[in-house]
User: Which sequence fits this backbone?
């Protein structure tokens, strides 16, 4: 049975991806390698943990010995590298771990891919590597201009991956997705933070003037795109994965208030993020040419996401009562 590795598969996107692939490809053995940082949760994989074509391994992608042992055991055909530190605000507070995991970790995996002759190495990158754009959209050939420690680390990681294609002919493919939302997203990110705060009757802390723009893609559309990239993507290429659903943060906040029927006076302007990127926007014609299109419109996706957080309060309340409390206090101080 061939095996594929999903690093960071206990996080938000990785767990949605693992769930889909384990069901869709029963003839492949899917192995999740995850360190279970504050953002990774084993229970995100509970639906598939007993499947015979699935294994979970707790471990760190920067640990060369452990990574090599795993490659020796499974001889992976393909790798999807989701593992990363991912939250921009945490990268502004403390960049070191981002460089270690996102850049050095990618290097460790690439070395293993080189040694064990992996067929495809898919590096999950982000639209943030392009930096901010006031008008128009970024295409795959736009210059990279990351503007915060998170996006700079992700740019470093994907360029390292590309260098393994150019230098060692490893079949690397890079994807750059826009802002994901949906079930199992850690409630430090805008949408789950606002939904869960709204359910708890707390304020929704909106940075700056609230006019920053993000392009929101439903997580299932993103993971579908990755399956298409696995099948039809070309080595050495980059693929933008966007949704064409650009919204100002203040409008997202209003929609969440409407869906939960709470008073919009709960939306409270707070101090802006340092170096806050104004707008992200992707041209994703190249993905369309592979036959992929995003399916979920934002209104529907948001309603489904709100329902999921309403129905799974145990999941996020457990998170909010742990490490998160200190983080929230540091970030938002007295805000309730
Ligand atoms: P997440 O923070 O929810 O999950 C990250 C996962 O990586 C966690 O399970 C964590 O435990 C694991 N991890 C962290 N360090 C590790 C290490 N050293 N070794 C092994 N595992 C480790 O992140 P996410 O939002 O699911 O993002 C997944 C990937 O997609 C990241 O590479 C991110 O840069 C990229 N991405 C995210 C978005 C988005 O909107 N969330 C958009 C584009 C790209
Ligand atoms: O664009 C893709 C990126 O999207 C991914 O690569 C990152 O991993 C992911 O974290 C996300 O980054 P953002 O910084 O865009 O997402 P975040 O949810 O942190 O913030 C979205 C917008 O909302 C941004 O303009 C900042 C704003 N915001 C965020 C928080 C947490 C607020 O106004 N208030 C908040 O409390």
Assistant:
């Amino acid at each position: 049975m061939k095996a594929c590795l999903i690093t960071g598969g206990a996080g938000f996107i990785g767990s949605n991806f693992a769930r889909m692939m384990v069901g869709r490809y029963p003839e492949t053995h899917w192995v999740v390698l995850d360190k279970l940082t504050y953002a990774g949760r084993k229970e995100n994989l509970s639906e598939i943990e007993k499947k015979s074509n699935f294994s979970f391994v707790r471990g760190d992608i920067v640990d060369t010995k452990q990574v090599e042992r795993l490659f020796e055991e499974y001889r992976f055909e393909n790798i999807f590298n989701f593992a990363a530190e991912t939250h921009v605000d945490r990268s502004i507070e403390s960049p070191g771990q981002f460089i270690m995991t996102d850049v050095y970790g990618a290097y460790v995996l690439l070395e293993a891919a080189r040694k064990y002759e992996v067929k495809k190495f898919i590096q999950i990158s982000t639209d943030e590597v392009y930096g901010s754009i006031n008008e128009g959209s970024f295409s795959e050939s736009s210059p990279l201009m990351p503007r915060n420690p998170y996006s700079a680390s992700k740019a470093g990681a994907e360029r390292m991956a590309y260098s393994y294609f150019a230098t060692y002919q490893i079949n690397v493919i890079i994807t750059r997705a826009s802002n994901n939302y949906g079930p199992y997203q850690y409630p430090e990110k805008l949408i789950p933070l606002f939904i869960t705060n709204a359910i708890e009757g707390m304020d929704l802390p909106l940075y700056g003037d609230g006019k920053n723009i993000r392009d929101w893609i439903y997580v299932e559309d993103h993971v579908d795109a990755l399956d298409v990239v696995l099948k039809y993507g070309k080595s050495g290429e980059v693929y933008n994965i966007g949704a064409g659903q650009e919204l100002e943060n203040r409008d997202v906040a209003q929609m969440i208030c409407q869906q939960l029927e709470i008073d919009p006076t709960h939306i409270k302007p707070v101090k802006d993020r340092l170096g806050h990127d104004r707008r992200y926007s992707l041209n994703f014609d190249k993905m369309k040419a592979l036959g992929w299109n995003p399916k979920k419109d934002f209104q529907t996706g948001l309603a489904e996401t709100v329902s999921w957080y309403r129905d799974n309060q145990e999941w996020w309340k457990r998170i909010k009562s742990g490490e998160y409390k200190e983080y929230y206090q540091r970030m938002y101080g007295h805000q309730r």
Notes: Residues 187 and 193 are 4 Å apart (CA to CA).
